[in-house]
Amino acid sequence: MPNLNGYKICARLRKIPAFSNTPIIILTSNIIDRVRATVVGCLDYLSKPVKAESVLSVISKHLSCPTENRPE
Q1: What is the C-alpha end-to-end distance of the chain, expressed in Å?
Q2: Tens digit of pLDDT for each residue in 43-66?
């Protein structure tokens, strides 16, 4: 992605009404990136190195969101 990164993509998705409530999870390695991810609209993050248990945990956390928070 020569002109885009995950933060720019997240920010752009948040501007589209269909994706305004879609859980976006960013893979990051430090605290500054976590703050930046939150600022652009990321709901959660995974830290490097990634473990299968972490991925499953964050997915199930966001799949169990109340339906009123999900887009129709």
Answers
A1: 30
A2: 888 888 889 999 988 888 888 655
